[in-house]
Structure formats: structure tokens, C-alpha cells
Amino acid sequence: MKPLPPRAALLGRFRGRLQEGQKALRERYLADGDAVAMLAGRSALIDDVLAGLWREQRFPADLALVAVGGYGRGELYPASDIDLLILLPGEPDAALKAQLEEMVGLFWDIGLEIGHSVRTPDECLAEAAGDITIQTALIEARLLTGNGALFDGFFRRLRAALDPQAFFKAKRIEQDERYLRFQDTPFSLEPNIKESPGGLRDLQVILWITQATGLGRSWRDLEDGGFVTAEEREHLERCEASLQRLRIRLHYHLNRREDRLLFDYQTALAEQLGFRPTATRRASEMLMQDYYRNAKSVTQLNVILLQNLGAAIFPPPDQAPRIINERFQAAHEMLDVRDEQVFERHPPAILESFLLLEQDATLKGMTARTLRALFRARKLIDDRFRADPANRALFLQIFQQPRGLVHELRRMNQYGILGRYLPNFGAIVGQMQHDLFHVYTVDQHILMVVRNLRRFTMEEFAHEYPFCTRLISEFDRHWLLYVAALFHDIAKGRGGDHSEQGTADAQAFCDSHGIAGEDAELVVWLVRRHLTMSQVAQKQDVSDPEVVAAFAAIVGDERHLTALYLLTVADIRGTSPKVWNSWKGQLLQDLYSATRRQLRDGGAAPAPHGVIQERQDEAMRLLRYFALSATVHERLWKQLDTVYFLRHSAEEIAWHTRCLHYRPNDEKPVVKARLNPASEGLQVMVYTRDQRDLFARLVGFFARAGYNIVDAKIHTTQHGYALDSFVLLDTSGRDNDREMLSYIEHELIERLTLQTAPEAPLAARLSRRLKHFPIAPSVAIEADEKGANYVLSLVAADRPGLLYAVATTLAKHGASLHTAKIATLGERAEDTFLISGGDLGQSAGRIRLESELLEQLKI
């Protein structure tokens, strides 16, 4: 027998063949973008290399080398694993085992990442019976070289052992579990092209089921079998090709296997695929919108096909349908068209189908043929359809039903109906904005806001939103709030003020849909003003009567106030799970309550002395609960000025008085910490003789202790003491606020007594999102209305040490801090400070401070 070729020569020859082939495939793909040719070409190249090596090693003729999984179906991405089965007629002897080990080593040594198994047909069938993943990989098996009879016999046995119904159920369960791993949404900020809902796996699962059930191996086979129409088949092929191109580009860009569209790669991939930034949108945002729209189509087609296949694999029992009207019937608890041409003959039935699902709680969804008919009919929604008064009335009825609105709006969005009926909504479908606090696409955010408003009306969620639930229960025609929510962000991405542009869209909708008078005025006003309440609550002092009076003048009456409050809470809660906290909730509720009192008192701002007297009286009432004398407050209060009583609530004044009434001139610092009685987090009071760098020292300490400052009231008494109050939220995840109280009190007293130098917060890594989508910091300093103080507003990327940098810069310029409103929106900080002193009175001094702050805020 001719001896085997030397190993080194063999490796060199096949490694060179592999490298040259892969280089040629890459160059060809980057030139023509033909994904199908690239996938098939790499598969054919690997076929040739593996078969050649196998022959060179002269394996016994009764063995078979088999491709399985994605390689088996002839699709190999640039960095995909190569899954192989070495099929044996029986147990191998020691010599064959050694030869096989040598063979696998050769595969790896020439540069192939191999996933392999060595089994007999009996072993394969036993493994497949107990593991759906192995069973799935084997149904795509393909003989590469070797014993054809052995492979054919094995494959016949595998097909005979398949239970189509069990396979279908297992793949559905597997898909449900996969969806849960990805939060059940295709709209993740960093989706997995292969595994996320709407990814390649959603298409592959369809073809696996059709192969396992003998219904076909391709989209063309499904068309021939009547499971998809020609239009649906073409749509499937376009969606699949889009995902294939993106995954190939990603592998080539990184020169390794990676299926996640991480922030790190989105911009580069967008540029490679021809997306160019505009004045209002990044290239990466356009890429991701294209991806999300494609993913939405894939999930829709996945639902239609699984229902179609399920009906074929599990024939439903004979049961007469329940007639609903001349167009629809109920079949097995699903809405069914009585005629698949019903939408073409009567286009208003498109919207009627969603209305019926709202009105009949026994209906669980739509039958496969209804979904297919709806998919075909979506193009009937044109200008003529939109102008039809019957369709406009149906669309408004969908908003006015007592149940099912959110489900049906999501279904309408999923099936492409909502975006066709409202083209301005269609423009923001799949649109992501990397503003560092929205984690949903604009369309998903809007539907989340509608969902939040709906939950205020539902008894089962009353424990989550008791105040909102009470308000909305007393609000007449609350469906108007849902319309306002639909339009509040509809103009995102156009450039300019999206609130003003959305206002025009809302006005046009109201005019065309017969919403008139005070109802139309409310909807349009809410869209224009939907950001106002959060801006006032988070950036201004809501304890200041003048702030409340100005806000009351904007809202005008209680109906507008309540509507704006409900929309604001729903909006903030719909941006990101990280943005909302109980402190923001308390600020909004406090502003709502103060404004309602203002409106009921006639709208005029109360005189400051009246407010002060009211708060002092209430504070004294609270102090009496602690059996303190009627004169207990006098020594402290005579050192406090009007500003103090205007900025602090009666409860805070009473707390400060209880802690300080017997030591207003104490030389030793006083620090008191307590659980925040109004919401989550801690309240900390610091009382000490004013000292240099005090605010910077406090900020650094709180940050090192793992707390964010969300509110600060800085006050200096008439006899030179600092009386500072802070609201802190834990950022470390310890969940041990109560245990931290004594630590904060002890450690701060020691630092303030020794007047230790300020300590900068510990450095922390920036998030990847912040790294790749940075915020350009902005700083503005403006005189307040009275001209005595200045309002410092800044926007920057939030990070540990941000507030410390601001504090040390203010101290360097001799500026005194009076209040701080710290608003953190995800990873975006929007902070407002009331400052005075230093050289702020001079334009040059303000410019120097602004410039230095901008430099400090850069990352």
C-alpha cells in the first residue's frame, strides 16, 4: 500500500487551499454582496477540503463523513462552526480511534473550527430521541464522503422515528424559552441576529418543522404546498437575505464569530452597508431601524406560518364556527374570516377585525388564514382608505373600548396596519434614538406609554399606581389620553422640536376624525406640553410658590393638570426601567398637589409670608407630637431666613428643629440620617459651621458610600452655619439603607470635625453605550428672575464623579450653592443648580466658569 503523505506537506497543501478559497469568497462577497452565493460557496469549499483530507487518510470504506446542522443544509457563515458526524457501522477498535483522533486534529490544524461526534446509527437515534437539539441537527444531515448505504439507512430510520406532532410542540416550547431569554422582544438595543426574536432562528425553526413533517425543505416548497403565497414567499426570502447579509458583514468585520449587534459595531456596519448620517440621525440609528423593521416582519411571518403548520399537523376537531356577522366568525376561539377575500371586498373590515377582538373576550387571536388575508390586504390602506369616514370612526372606536386596546394596537403595529393607517407613525416604527435613557424604539415606547395609561384604569394594578388609579377613575373620556400618548413622540427623528411638530400631527388627526372642541384642545395641548411637568418637577424648586404659580398658569385648570400628570407618569415609566424611581414619582405628585391647591385658591400666587406662616404652623403642629414646648423652635428659627422656610416643607422644618433646637450654636458638626419618609432612599441633614469645600467634601463622601444625590438644599444660617439637606438613592444594589444610617452619621461627623480634604469618588468604567454614543455636554448660566442668583443648567453623560467635578469647580470659582436638582435619565444627567457669589456678576466670570465646567464634563 502506498504510504500516507507526510503530515507537514498535507497540512500545508490543505491549509493553503482553505485560505485561498476563503480569501476569494470574502473578496467576491464584499464586491457583489451576494449572501446566498457566499454561504453556499463556503460550504462547498469546506466540503472539498474535508472530503480531500478524508480520502488522503484512507479511512475504511464502511465509514461515512456527514455534515449536520447549518453546515448540513449548505449554509456556512464566515466564522460559523463546522458540525460533523462521523458515522460508524459499529464500535471502533483502538487503531480506528487513533486514526479518527488524528483526522480531527488535522481539521483543526488547517484552521477549521470543528464540532464533531463519532457515533453508530443506533447511538445517533438514541441521542436524538432524548434531545431535540440533536434531533434538529440530524434532520439536516448531508453525506460528504464515505459509505452512502450506511448514511441512507441511518437517515431512513431517523425519519421513521420522528414524531411530527412531538417535534412541533418541542420546537414551539424551545422558541418560547428563547424569546424569554431575549425579553420577548425583537427591539433589544443590542439584538442577536441569530437568536433574538425576529432573527434567523425564527426562520430556521419553520424549515426544521417542515422537514421533520415532510412538508418541504425550502420556502418554494412551502409555496407549492399552499402554506405561503408567492408574495409571502418573496417577503420571507427578502427578510432572510437581509439577516444573512448583516450576519456575514458582522463576521467579516470582526474576523471571528459574533452574532450580537453590539454598540461597538453598529456604526461601522452601518457605514459598510451604505447608511450615511443626517443632521438628525446617526447612521447606526438608520441601520437599526432597518433591522427592527425586518425583525418585525420575521416575527409576523413566523406567527402566520406556525399557525398554518400547526393546523396541518394538528387537524382541529370538527366544530361548527360561531357566526359573528357577515364577514367574520369564531373558529376554535379564534377570529376567522368567512371569506379570504373579505378585506378586498370590504376594506373597513381590516379595522373591524381588531375592534371585534376587543369586544369579544372569548377570542384569543386570529386564525392563520385571517392573518394571511390581513397580510395581503395591508396595501389596501391608502389615502382613500384613510379618508373614509367609516374607517375613521372604526379607528376611534378601537380607542374607546373598555378592554383590549394595548393588545390590539400592538397587533396592528406587528402586522403593519397601524403604520399604514397613520403614515407618521409608520415613519418611527423601529426607530431607535441613542439618547441614553430611552431603551425602546419610538413606536414601542409610544405603545408602552399607552399601556401604562391603561394600567391606571385596571383594578388589578391599582396597588402599583393608587394615586393615578384614583385620578383616572374620575377623569371623563380618558380615551383622549390614549390618543395624546399615540402622538406625543410621533415626530421624533424629524429634526427640530418634536413636541411642536407632533402638535401639528395631533391637530390634523383630531380635525379629520371628528374630535372637536375641548376634547381636541386637550389632546393637542397634551402633545405640545408633554415634557413640561417633568421639566418643572426635576429642574425647579417645587416648594417655591412662584414656581407652582407659574406652572398653574400653564395648565390653567384641574382637567389639564390631571391629564398632564397622568401622561407624564406614564411617559417617564415608559422610557426605561432605570429612569423611574419613587423619588421622581414623589416630585411629580408634590407638584400636582401644590398646583391643584393653587388652582382651587384662584390661581394667584400666595404671598410669601402667608406660605411661611402656613408651613411654620404645620411644623409646630408636628413638633407637638414629640411633647416639645411651644417655644422649642425659637433659638433655631431666629437664625433662619425667609428663603429657608420657602424651600423646605413643614415636615423637613419639624425634623430639623427636633434635631437642632437645643444646639443651634454647637461647635461640633451634627449629622442626622433617616429613611426617606416620602419615598425610597435616605434623607441626610448636615449642620456645621460653614467651611471651605464643604459641598465637595459631602458629594465625594456620598459617592464613595455608593449613593447618588437626587436632591440637595444648601442653606447658610444668619450666624454662619451650613444647614444642608440631601436625598440619596443607593446605586450599589446593597439594599441595606437602614444599616447605613449610623455609618453615614459617624463617618461624616469625623470628616467634618477634622475638615479632611474632599475625596474624589472611585473611578468606574463607562458603559459601552455611553462610550459609543456620547453626549456632547452643555452648560448654561443665567440670572434668575430676581437677578440675585444664577441658575446653572448642565447636560452631560452621567458617571461617578460628575457631581464632584461640578462641586470642586464651583468652589474654585468662589460660587456658593443654594439648591441642586439632580435629574438622572438613564445614563444622561440633566442637573440644575442655584448659585451665587464669586465673580458671577461679571460676564467674563460666567464665561470662565462655563468653559471650565465644559472641560470637566468631557469624557
From TrEMBL:
Gene Ontology terms, MF aspect: [protein-PII] uridylyltransferase activity; phosphoric diester hydrolase activity
Organism: Azospira restricta
Protein's UniProt name: Bifunctional uridylyltransferase/uridylyl-removing enzyme
Region feature (Uridylyl-removing): 324-682
Cofactor: Mg(2+)
HAMAP family: PII_uridylyl_transf
SMART domains in alphabetical order: HDc (SM00471)
Domain HD, chain residue ranges per copy: 442-564
Record entry for activity regulation: Uridylyltransferase (UTase) activity is inhibited by glutamine, while glutamine activates uridylyl-removing (UR) activity.
